[in-house]
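stuck on this one:
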Amino acid sequence: MIKPIYNLNSIRPPITGVGRYTLELINGQLTQNQPVVAVYQGKLYQGQTLKRLTKSLLETTISTNGNLRKLIGSLPFSRDIYHHLKKAEFRRIRSRIEPKPLIEHDVNYANPNADVITLFDTSHINARSSHPRHRVTFLDRYFKQLLANQRSIITISEAVKQELITHCSIEPERIHVTPLAADANYHPRTESSCSQRLISYGINYHQYVLSLATVEPRKNLSRSIDAYLNLPPATRQQFPLVIAGAPGWKSSSLMTRINLLAEQGEITYLGYVSERDLPFLYAGSTVFLYPSLYEGFGLPLLEAMQSGSACVTSNSGALAEVSNGAALEVDPTNVIDITTAISTLLTNPESNAQHRQLAIDRANHFSWSHTVELTRAVYESI
């Protein structure tokens, strides 16, 4: 039986996109009694010990020296040195595992020569300004090595697959699409089940517009704010814009604006929100606003849809693929287009209810068990 091995050394709490994908993939295989091994912080995990590790990582909400890692990562060659040391440690531990062979699945840009590689997006190619220079340099080098081999590639959307074919000239038969899924904690909730969490943030059930994203240029928050501020004052007073998300790269000027608008009472800024509270924020929103400029998949959109929120998102790329007509899809560069969509869902109860149901129906097409099945099929094809 095929046994995949994962290098988890780059995963740190709180768990976000890449970490969530990796741990859900491992958990899904363990649930199906599939053999899986992983290396984390110099130790080998499998079976029940691996199950306990993934549970612990998913439940830990405290960041581990994030600012220090960012500082070190910006230093010349620091990422190369780090990855070289971690790869050597990984190879040493892997060499002791019996029986062989193992299939190495690289899920975090650690080894471009792994047997299977997951590529989450091509933003370092077609949205280069959305990344620091050192990250673009690192990803350029990784992709160059990847293109020189014939390893199997997994992407999380058809959109990313087409980008890899177009921009990188990768053969289509090398690329396999395995969509993401939302956790079962994301589902519609009643007012009574949400009220206590929402009151702690100063907001009321089905009386706010939610924007959830790291504060960085690619998330298009500046236009989202502009679009919201175009609404009539009475509408804004009834449905405040609630922004949840930690500051990211190139966020200083936008954070200044967000903090000023929050002080003036024009919007509500929550900062980072723990995964424990996110399901309640999604389910309690009147509208979920996510017109990002670029995503490899757009998991927050799927989480909101599965929570039964009426959504506004972008009309192109992976977000349009995930939505498939369930959300109101807009040109993310057109502020008036975004304003019109928000207004429709806030002022037309029938449209809002229709898009809530469309969102739930569409979200039912995604599951981690299906992702695991598609991924195991890739392993079997090697």
User: Anything to note?
Assistant: The domain at 191-363 is CATH 3.40.50.2000 (Rossmann fold). The chain has a mean pLDDT of 92.
